[in-house]
């Protein structure tokens, strides 16, 4: 890690808070900027007393000012779960467009490297499998998910334009489904939903027939990949995700087994434009960043379940 002073936008969210933690452990100073739309100060509470950590409440779509030098901007601000971005469609489009413009402006002003948190959702419902970075995607531009997918596609385009036109040192990381501690139990994503339901003894709600697949990456692996890209001068885009692919039904059953739950599986309606398959081709990340995921699914899920068990116990009303 060569960056000394790092801005993490969306730093009080799930991924952002893990990035802040890792950067501090590696000796960087961290400025965490967040408007707490889907994140919360609680995610970085344990970092607040540290001399090299600063939390700034700020909406990236408004005026953005950071005093002093900055070496690296990690732009992670954006609602990310379908429940969140469908609840905040305009805010999602605004942070992906205006927010990205401001974050790029900050990197340009400070002469900092800039890394955009893009997503596997830019591939939409992919017609190529697994997905390589050269694939252009299959996105419905007026479907409900487009507020997120198209915002990220625009953000990638804007990032590339700043590199070409303004010479900003940029990198684009396309993150595939990541999971781990500090996901919110009700954020609507499959893993927190299944884990919460299994722990509470409720039916595990699998959408459709459960044959649709996802590839899930433990948060520590994703963070390592993002920081490897940040430390390089590679523009990307580069996929970061775990190629181990499993069906949603298999995921639900694995979580049920690991929690020791007896919850039944309940099949519910599938969301509109929900992708059929998702698996990253990670050859580029291996070749350019020397990165590959190392945490296997069962180990990552066990750590996540242990965290959720503590979390749900603490927030459960005393009977
Ligand atoms: P999250 O919702 O936990 O975190 C996003 C953070 O951004 C929140 O703290 C939120 O309050 C903040 N934010 C939103 N709008 C903002 C604004 N206008 N100004 C300032 N802060 C704002 O989501 P996450 O899962 O941690 O995702 C973080 C980033 O990584 C997102 O950009 C997302 O698109 C990307 N990503 C995540 C995943 C994943 O599996 N978690 C996969 C692909 C991409």
UniProtKB/TrEMBL annotation:
Keyword NAD among record annotations: yes
Domain of life: Bacteria
One term of GO molecular function: UDP-glucuronate decarboxylase activity
One Pfam match: Epimerase
Span of domain NAD-dependent epimerase/dehydratase: 6-241
Cofactor: NAD(+)
UniProt name for this protein: UDP-glucuronic acid decarboxylase family protein
Organism: Sphaerisporangium aureirubrum
């Amino acid at each position: 890690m060569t960056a000394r002073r790092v801005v993490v936008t969306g730093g009080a969210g799930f991924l952002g808070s893990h990035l802040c933690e890792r950067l501090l452990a590696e000796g960087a100073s961290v400025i965490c900027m967040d408007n707490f739309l889907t994140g919360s100060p609680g995610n970085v509470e344990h970092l607040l007393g540290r001399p090299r950590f600063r939390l700034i409440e700020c909406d990236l779509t408004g005026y953005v000012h950071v005093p002093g030098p900055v070496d690296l901007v990690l732009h992670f601000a954006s609602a990310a779960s379908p429940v969140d971005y469908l609840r905040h469609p305009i805010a999602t489009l605004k942070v992906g467009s205006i927010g990205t413009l401001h974050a790029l402006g900050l990197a340009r002003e400070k002469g900092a490297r800039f890394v955009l948190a893009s997503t596997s959702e830019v591939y939409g419902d992919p017609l190529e499998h697994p997905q390589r970075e050269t694939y252009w995607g299959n996105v419905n531009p007026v479907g409900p998910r487009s507020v997120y997918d198209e915002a990220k596609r625009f953000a990638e385009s804007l990032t590339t334009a700043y590199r070409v036109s303004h010479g900003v040192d940029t990198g684009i990381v396309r993150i595939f489904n990541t999971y781990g501690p500090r996901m919110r139990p009700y954020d609507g994503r499959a893993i927190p939903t299944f884990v919460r339901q299994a722990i509470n003894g409720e039916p595990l709600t699998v959408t459709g027939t459960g044959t649709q697949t996802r590839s899930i990456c433990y948060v520590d692996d994703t963070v390592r990949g993002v920081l490897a890209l940040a430390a390089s001068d590679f523009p990307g885009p580069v996929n970061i995700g775990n190629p181990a692919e499993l069906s949603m039904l298999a995921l639900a059953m694995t979580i049920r087994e690991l929690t020791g739950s007896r919850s039944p599986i309940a099949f519910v309606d599938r969301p509109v434009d929900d992708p059929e398959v998702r698996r990253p081709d990670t050859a580029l990340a291996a070749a350019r960043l020397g990165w590959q995921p190392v945490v296997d699914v069962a180990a990552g899920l066990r750590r996540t379940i242990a965290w959720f068990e503590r979390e749900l116990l603490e927030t459960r009303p005393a009977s």
